[in-house]
Amino acid sequence: MSSTTDISRRGFLKIAGLGGTALYLGVFPSATGAEATIVNAGQAAYQSIELNAWVYIDTAGKVTFVDHRAEMGQGSYHSVSQILAEELEVDLNDVNIIFGQGDKKYGSQVTGGSSTIRMNYKNFLKLTATAREMLIAAAAAQWGVAAAECYAEHGHVIHKKSGKKAHYGELVVAASKLTPPKDVKLKKRSEYRLIGKPLKRLDTPLKTNGTAIFGLDKRVPGMVFAAVERNPRLRGKVKSFDASAALKVPGVQKVFKIKMLVFKTYREGVAVVANSTYAAFQGKKALKVEWDDSGFEHINTADIYARQLENVKTKEGLFLKKQGDPDAALAKSAQKLDLIYQTPYQSHSPIEPLNCVAHYQGDKVEVWGPIQAPDWIQDALSEEMGLKRENVIVNMTFLGGGFGRKAFMDYPHEAAVISKEINAPVQVVWTREDEMTQGPYRPGITYRCEASINNGDIDALKFRMSGQNNDHWRDPKNKQQANRSTSEGFLQPYYDSIKNISFAEVIFETPIPSMWWRSVYASTNGFAYESFLDEVAHAAGKDPMDLRRQYLTDERSQKLLDKMEEISGWKNRKKNEGFGVAITECFASTVGQIVKVSRKAGGKVKIDKVWAVMDCGWYVNPDIVQAQVEGAIVMGLGAATMHEITFTDGLVDQKNYHSYQMPRIYDIPPIEVHIMENAEDAGGVGEPGLPSFAPALTNAIFDLTGTRIRKLPFKMDEV
């Protein structure tokens, strides 16, 4: 918190004046990890804090919550409302949610890592419980009774003995003058009336009646439109361009060269500015651009995997984790496995393509759009454009999917650069082809997995991976350290029961841009590690579920396994049915999946059913959890059996959904989702359902056919 001596009289009055019109409360997370502090407007003024209210209640009793994270389909817009309404004791439909602008006062605003609820729910609960207690205290003082004799319900404070009742709006002015209590009593889960219930999402009506504002819907006065022809190879340059045909397209106003920051590299392109998106697209098509693609490698997909394979076969790599001595155990092992698994590059391809509105105004820039990381964009634009951070204003809209791609800073930077050039607000829209061919992508990875088996038991596990490290673009020092996600997806309890384990990364780099993709490295690690454990189980002569039960000895894992066996009928499997199991951990949640397959009349393999059991600890809305797991499975199905990004001469082969096919409704098997009930802290929900699907599917195919699948994607019709 800032010094109290440097606040101006005007600033004090501005902040403190809020207390006369509403109850404003803010959360200030501790940098040391200690419990967050709740402050009101008056305290913020006294301590020279720029108050970013998270919740405020006005004199009409209207409750507004400022959501500092993005809503991109994962349900946080509703979930934070459900949390707010629970402890504040208001009706869910009376909560108004608005998106906060980018500001470091909120703490991290990156919507990623399935972190919105799991990293903030305790602060949300404390914040709203604090507001409730302040309102109760204000009412008690007004009535001259003890606060303990009062309670809150449906936006009112009620005195138990007399039945006196006051609406929150009548109490906010008095409450705003109170010091927030440091310790408030939170409800037990058994006392919740909203949390844990499958309530209908608040954003569903907005998204079905057209009132939800997505990035593509945003309009500002004087706005023009732009499209960009970008170099199809990240490191290439613009040698020359002919804009004559583009400028003849009706509506096209200006054509010029630009460059945008992609990681630590600048991608060059030619911007076409017009009076409509359509005109900009048509002008872009009419451009003639000559590229300079010299000075860097134009790689092919086959070369990528050949080099990765050579890496894991001949190099030890950088160790992320190592316990015991796996090499010694492997050297003297009576039975060994040494297998290779490979996973493909993938595009994010959300239904809503990238887009951003920017308005550069000399000493400041303001952007609007589908943004996952407003604070990161503030940092990036401030540095690139030489602006004060507070003069970079970032506004979030609803997102039509993101999966990690919209947490990046390139597309807002591009829009800001174009706005600066034309001195006007502009909306830049990417086509599907732009997004699919430009990346960045989930990196393709090759794994080498080794095991030592003695007397049917695992003596050692040794894993090596070689693929692009998404951390390398941030800091060159990371190239001296193993990928911090090398073991992502592998369950922690295994370390307690297997004495010799190691994970290492063999560095591999290409000019191809890579970045996070839903569940990040767990989506690829999970396939390799859980497929390998299945092969270890068969080599050891054990049932795959029994092997996991043997080494996942903690109570929480055992209960998960019990549930998986119970719902799927694992122990009563029939002949001509293939069952596969996989269990992965991702962002503090564990998901176990069982896939059942059989043969169609023509002999082709089909998926009969998927059972998923999620242990995410404390959760808000079971319907949202179920929807996220189902969506993750569908996305995992596409990534495992339908699509991949490939490269020829450094260019992407896939251009749109016709060549990067997505699962259709008729491809989706029945999915049954179960949520474990326990008192553990909240884990993530949006991403953890994805990694365990692919290995559960391929393990089931082996159980049915005897064929092992070690490279993704594969085609179901060709098994």
Protein described:
This is Xanthine dehydrogenase. InterPro entries: Ald_Oxase/Xan_DH_a/b, AldOxase/xan_DH_MoCoBD1, AldOxase/xan_DH_MoCoBD2, AldOxase/xan_DH_Mopterin-bd_sf, N-heterocyclic_Hydroxylase, OxRdtase_Mopterin-bd_su_IorB, TAT_signal. Pfam families: MoCoBD_1 (PF02738), MoCoBD_2 (PF20256). It comes from Flavobacterium akiainvivens. By secondary structure, the chain is of the alpha+beta class. The protein folds into three domains: about 10-210, Aldehyde oxidase/xanthine dehydrogenase, molybdopterin binding domain (Aldehyde Oxidoreductase, domain 4); about 215-295 and about 355-430, Aldehyde oxidase/xanthine dehydrogenase, molybdopterin binding domain (Aldehyde Oxidoreductase, domain 4, 2-Layer Sandwich), CATH 3.30.365; about 315-345 and about 440-719, Aldehyde oxidase/xanthine dehydrogenase, molybdopterin binding domain (Aldehyde Oxidoreductase, domain 4). It is about 30% helix and about 25% strand. It has 19 helices and 28 strands.
Characteristic key phrases:
719 residues, alpha+beta, Aldehyde Oxidoreductase, domain 4, 3 domains, 7-stranded mixed sheet, globular, disordered N terminus, Xanthine dehydrogenase
Describe this structure in a few short sentences.
The chain is an alpha+beta fold. α4 (121-143) crosses α5 (168-176) and α15 runs parallel beside α19. It is globular, with a radius of gyration of 28 Å.
| CATH C-level category of the largest domain | Alpha Beta
**Overall morphology:** globular
Figure out the total of helices: 19
Structural class: alpha+beta
Major sheet description: 7 strands, mixed
Strand order of the largest sheet: 11-12-9-19-16-17-18
CATH-defined fold name of the largest domain: Aldehyde Oxidoreductase, domain 4
C-alpha-based Rg, rounded: 28 Å
Can you identify the CATH superfamily of the largest domain?
Answer: Aldehyde oxidase/xanthine dehydrogenase, molybdopterin binding domain
* Unreliable runs: 1-18, 46-51
Q: State the helicity in percent bands.
A: 25-40%
How many β strands by DSSP? 28
- Please give the domain count: 3
CATH architecture of the largest domain: 2-Layer Sandwich
Distance between the termini: 62 Å
Strand content range: 15-25%
Average the pLDDT over all residues and give the rounded result: 93
GO molecular function, one term: oxidoreductase activity
Domain Aldehyde oxidase/xanthine dehydrogenase a/b hammerhead: 209-295
Protein name: Xanthine dehydrogenase
InterPro entries: Ald_Oxase/Xan_DH_a/b, AldOxase/xan_DH_MoCoBD1, AldOxase/xan_DH_MoCoBD2, AldOxase/xan_DH_Mopterin-bd_sf, N-heterocyclic_Hydroxylase, OxRdtase_Mopterin-bd_su_IorB, TAT_signal
